[in-house]
Amino acid sequence: MKMNRILSFATLLIICGSLQAKNHIVTSPNGKNVATVDDGLNITVSHDGKQVVTVKASIRDGLKIASVKSKNINETIQAPFYRQKEIRIAGNQMDVKLNDGFSLQIRAYDEGVAYRFCTTNKKQTVIFDETADFCFPEDSKAWLAYSTNDEKPFAMAFQNFYDETLLSKAKDKYIFLPATIQSGGVKVTILESDLRAYPGMFMKADGLKLRAAFAKYPKTLDRYPWRGMTYVADTEDYIAKSTGARTYPWRVMAITEKDTEMPVNNLVYALATPNQIGDTSWIRPGKVAWDWWNDWNLKGVDFEAGINTRTYLYYIDFAAKNHIPYVVLDEGWYDSSKADIMNPIAAIDLQQLIDYGKKKGVNIVLWTVFNVLDEHLREACEKYTKMGIAGWKIDFLDRNDQTAVEMAERLAKTCAEYKLFVDYHGFYTPTGMNRTYPNILNYEGVFGMEEARWAKKETDMPRYDVTFPFIRMMAGSVDFTPGAMRNGTKHNWVECYQNPVSMGTRCHQLACYVMHDSPFTMLCDAPTNYEREQECVDIITSIPDTWDETRILSGYISSYMITARRNGSDWYVGGQTNWDERKVDISLDFLRPGESYQATIVTDGVNANHNAEDYRIESKTLSTNDKLNIRMASGGGFVVKLIKR
C-alpha cells in the first residue's frame, strides 16, 4: 500500500508538473490549510500536513513569477438575505506578480483555499483558454453532477443528481460545479466566486484529475420559436474578452473536515464583489404562492381555473389570508410564442390584479425569459414598475458563457435601479452575484420540486434532498420550490403531471422551509389543496425567510441532515432523511441558558411509512438542558419551532 501511494504521488508530479526548488507559501490563520505555489504556477494545497490537491493553473502561456508579497485579510461582512446576518472571516493572501501585466492572488482561509488571476492591461485582453487542472494524490470518492445535454453540454439548466463514484470511474461527461472530492481525510469542494464578464467553469474527469472547461464566446445566436429563447449557434475560438484592468473569477477549494461544515461554508459569498446597489431596505424577502407546479388546478370553485384574472384573484385571496406577501404569475401571462412581454394576454387584467393585491398586502411577481426581458429591459421595467410589480422570476438562461453571465448581471443591475428584485431560474450555479446585487433573492440550479411532475418511480429524490444541501447550497441559495400537500412513499408514489406528488413524507416537505437557504420561497401547491391542510400552511408561513445564524447539528451527505436556524431570540430546527427510516437525538444546548422556549414539534406520524401524508404535532416547554429523540420515517422529516417565552 505504501509503495502504491509513492507511485501515485510520483505520477501526480509528472501529470501536474514537478515542484520547483523555489516555492512560495501562504497559510490559513489556524495553520491547517497551506497553499504552496511553484515557479510553474502549480498550486499544492495541504490540510494538516496532508496533500489534498494540486492545481495546475494558467490563463496565458509563458507566465512567470516576478515577485511575491503577502497580506492579511480580516473582514466583517454584512450579509442581508443570507444564511446568517454577518460573516466574520479571516485569511492570508499571497500576491504573485507575473509578467505581461498579469498577477495571481492566492488566499488561505480556515474554510479553504482560493486563487484568481488579475490583469492591469489597459487594452483588450483575449483569453483563448484557462487551465485549471485539479490533480488528486490518490483515487478518491467524488460527488459529481453531469451536464444533461450530451449534444450541447454547455447549454442546459444545471439540474441533475450527484453521481457518487470513484474519481477514476467518473463518466466521460462535462461536470458542472460544485464538485466534491474526498481527499486526504477531508472533503474538497470545487466552486467559483465573483464570476463576472467571463464564462463559468465546467470540468471533465481525466484519471485522477478534474480539468476545467469553458464555453466559447458566442459568435452568433439563434432563436427557438417557442418562448423566443436564444441559443448559441456558433462560437469564436476564445472563451473571453475584456478591455482594461480586471480580476478573473476565484477558483475556490472549500475544505471541510466534517460534512456538517459544508452547508455553512461561506467562501463563495465572502469572495464575491461587495454590494454594488447601495440601499437594500426596499428589498423584502418572503414566501410566494406559485401557480405553475400545481397546473392552476383549483377544486370546488365556481369559475374555470387557468391563466385568467379570476384564478389569480383567488391566489391573491389565499395569499392575503395566510400573510404570504407574493403571488407569481408564471409562464402564460403574455404570449410566449411571440415573446410579447410588453402585452399581457386578454384573459389577464394585470393592473386589476396588481391593484387588488396591494389592497390586500400581496405583491405581484412576473415570470419571463432572460433574453426576452433583456431585449426590452428598460421599457419593460419602466412599464411594470409603474403598474406596481415587485420583481421578476427570470427563466431559461440555460448557459454560462461570457455573454450570458453579462446578461445576468445587466438584468440584476437594471432591475435594482427600478427597485425590482429577481429570482433566477434556468440558471447556472450561484457564484456570489447575490452579494454584489442583493436584489437577486434566489436561484434555481437545483433538481427541485418541478422534477416531480415528470420524474419516474426509480428517481430517488429523498436521497438528492439530503445531498444537495451539502454541495450545491455551499454556492448559494436554492429555489427548490417545496410545499407539496400530495405526498408519496417509496412504494406508492405515482407520477402525475397535472396533480403532482412529492417523494417522501409531508414533514419532509415542511422541513425544506427550515433547511434551505431560500429568502424567496415558493408554496408550490394549489390554494384549494392548502385550504384543506390549514395546519400545515400555518406551520410553513410561521417559519422566517431570513436568519441571524445557521448551524448544522448533525448529518452525513446523502443520508440525513439536521439544521438549526435562529431568527432573533427564536430557533427553528428542521431535519430530513433519505429513504432510510432513522431515529435521531438532538441536544438543545444551542438555546440560551436560563431561558425557556415554547416548542411546537411536527413529526412523521406513526403510519407515515404507509401514508406519507401522516404527521403529528405536539407542544411542550423546553430549555437548553433538554434533548429530543425524533423518529423520521422513510423519506421523512420534521420541524421544531422553539419560541422564547
Automatic annotation (TrEMBL):
Its cofactor is Ca(2+). Residues 292-446 form the Glycosyl-hydrolase 97 catalytic domain. InterPro entries: Aldolase_TIM, GH, GH-type_carb-bd, GH97_C, GH97_catalytic, GH97_N, Glyco_hydro_b, Glycosyl_hydrolase_97. Residues 1-21 form the signal peptide. SUPFAM superfamilies: (Trans)glycosidases. Residues 26-274 form the Glycosyl-hydrolase 97 N-terminal domain. Residues 546-642 form the Glycosyl-hydrolase 97 C-terminal oligomerisation domain. Keywords: Calcium, Glycosidase, Hydrolase, Signal. It comes from the Bacteria. One of its GO terms (molecular function) is carbohydrate binding. The keyword DNA-binding does not apply. Pfam families: GH97_C (PF14509), GH97_N (PF14508), Glyco_hydro_97 (PF10566). Monomer. PANTHER family: GLUCAN 1,4-ALPHA-GLUCOSIDASE SUSB-RELATED, RETAINING ALPHA-GALACTOSIDASE. This is Retaining alpha-galactosidase. It comes from Xylanibacter ruminicola (Prevotella ruminicola).
